[in-house]
Amino acid sequence: MAEQHFQLEVHESGLNPHKVANGEFDDDGKPSRTGNLWTTSAHIITAIIGSGVLSLAWCVAQLGWVVGVATLLIFSLITLYTSNLLADCYRSPDPATGKRNYTYTDAVKTNLGGAMYVACGIVQYANLCGMVIGYTITASISMVAIKKSNCYHNRGREAQCSFSNNPYMIGLGILEIFLSQIPDFHKLSMLSIVAAFMSFGYSFIGMGLAFAKVVSGGGQRTTMTGVEVGIDISAAEKTWRMFQAFGDIAFAFSYSQLLIEIQDTLKSSKPENKVMKKANVMALLTTTTFYMMCGCFGYAAFGDRAPGNLLTGFGFYEPFWLVDMANIFIVVHLVGAYQVFSQPVFSAVESWANMRWSKSTFVMGEYPMAIGNKFKFNANFFRLTWRTIFVILATTLAMALPFFNDILALLGAIGYWPLTVFFPVEMYIAKRRIGRWTNQWLGLQLINVVCFLVALAATCGSIQGLSKAFNANKPFQAKE
After folding, report:
1. C-alpha distance from residue 420 to each of 130, 258, 384 (Å)
2. How many degrees, rounded to 5, is the angle at CA 162 between CA 159 and CA 166?
3. What span, in angstroms and rounded, lies between the C-alpha atoms of 366 and 354?
4. Sign of the CA dihedral 120, 351, 10, 379?
5. Transmembrane residues, as ranges (predicted)?
6. Nearest Cα to Cα of residue 137 among 462, 457, 405
7. What span, in angstroms and rounded, lies between the C-alpha atoms of 105 and 94?
8. DSSP class of residue 368?
């Protein structure tokens, strides 16, 4: 039956059955996909393990051992569960043999209709663009941290070592202009694998330095409830910080907005949803382990005074070369992550342009080019122009808004609940036709409501932090 269905689709699409059988094209006319469990896991790890992993020590310090560790585990389990629900929405109506949904918004439109499709698109692409701008800032902070580390090493820890972030943002933008010409997600596998290894590298260094500090007897006092009220902060400030910590942890597990696009790189020789679920388990088990070790070792090392970033906040000064190496790893990882988060935006705009100007040679023309005998690629003038403009705008906004990480925290707090929880749950309910007030429906809605309340609290904490950032920073004057 499945074979007859496949042959019917090939016949209706007008494709050459011989080319489809040989694997040159999928049954829907698109080039054959080559992704597998390992490349998919690399994409997920690149997307999910950002440099924010190094801020988890601060989060645990605000929440304490009990709530901090429990929050990390709970968010990991919720994200794994809802990501597996979303994996079943890649094809419709049957999750194994149905029609492909190429993007997250396509899946929402198929299962929930046009109104939800528009709402999802606004939230998703706002978050993706925000991530790109935030990564530009974060990468520049790590580059400046390398220069500051060498300054402190040569001139002493009390030296005035302050440098502008702007030249580093411009340099990163120039690099990303070239990398943005990678045509699509399917060509990002090698970059994602390199970026994933870089994330392991700086995470290991951060954990190792914190662990060494603890076992050498330099660890600081910790408590079950975290930062103590009345000693360093007021009760109100403690509450705001806890809300911000919830938001940071929720944001650290946000990758569902890319899951369908990542799943669309998997070859169809096996049902994609089954492979994707294995990749989800592998990636989240890996990331949760790293998150727990970085958060717990970092808190044990620094106690209530855990820095916002173990490596750029100068919790460690020596060995300076190892701190420098970790920051280099962060920069390389963020260069790759920039592309992982940019590609869905590029694809959405270019798909719209292809439909709008289908006869334009500027939009549709592909011109074969080569560098040497091995590196061959197709140039497209619209892709070159619009992606360059996008990178320039992102870099300019990053320079103009040195407090954008606080805006990014707000975007993360707002975006986590709808993209990671609400849409996957509602699509699953619609797809499986789960009746209202059944036990399964009530259980899914309980997850929905709890995550919404946490996201609401995190949003309030982010707004409070954002108001402080507006007063403390000026446009185009970012310094570290």
Report:
1. 16, 10, 32
2. 165
3. 12
4. negative
5. 37-56, 63-82, 122-146, 166-182, 188-212, 279-300, 320-341, 384-401, 407-429, 441-466
6. 405
7. 18
8. E
Domains of the chain are: 35-472 (1.10.4160.10)
The residue assigned the tokens 């046009």 is 114
Question: Rounded CA gap, 466 and 332, in Å?
Answer: 28
212, containing H or E segment: helix 189-213
Structure tokens at 217: 């007897």
Under 8 Å between Cβ of 327 and 146: yes
Joined together, the tokens standing for residue 346 give 């590029």
* Encoded tokens for 170: 């411009």
Name beta bridge partners: 91.
100
Q: Which are the contacts of 84, defined by CB distance < 8 A and separation ≥ 6?
A: 277, 280
Q: Are 181 and 30 in contact (CB under 8 A)?
A: no
**Nearest of 148, 193, 164, 166 to residue 311 by alpha carbon:** 148
Cα 191–Cα 196–Cα 199 angle in degrees, nearest 5: 130
Residue with tokens 């806890």: 242
Alpha helices in 253-403 (DSSP H): 259-263, 272-302, 320-356, 361-364, 381-400
Give the tokens for residue 431: 């797809």
444 token code pair: 């899914």
- d(Cα 335, Cα 328) in Å, to the nearest integer? 11
Place of tokens 């669309």: 264
Query: For every one of its 480 residues, what pLDDT tens digit does the chain have, with 9 covering 90 and above?
Result: 444 443 444 444 444 444 444 556 676 667 777 788 888 888 888 777 765 677 788 889 999 999 999 999 999 999 999 999 999 999 888 877 788 888 899 999 999 988 999 999 998 888 888 888 888 988 888 888 888 888 887 887 777 877 888 899 999 999 999 888 887 766 777 887 888 788 888 888 888 888 888 888 777 888 888 888 876 688 888 888 888 888 888 877 877 888 888 888 888 777 888 999 999 999 899 888 888 888 888 899 888 888 777 766 555 667 878 888 888 988 998 888 888 889 889 988 998 999 989 888 888 888 777 666 666 777 888 999 999 999 999 999 988 876 665 666 677 777 888 999 999 999 999 988 999 999 999 999 999 999 999 888 888 888 887 777 777 666 666 555
- Helical packing angle, 114-155 and 423-432, nearest 10°: 150
Cα-flanking dihedrals φ and ψ of residue 231, to 5°? -95, -55
Phi-psi region of 130 (alpha: psi -120 to 50; beta: other; left: phi over 0): alpha
For the purposes of burial, counting CB atoms within 10 Å of the CB of 306, is it exposed (0-12), middle (13-18) or buried (19 or more)? buried
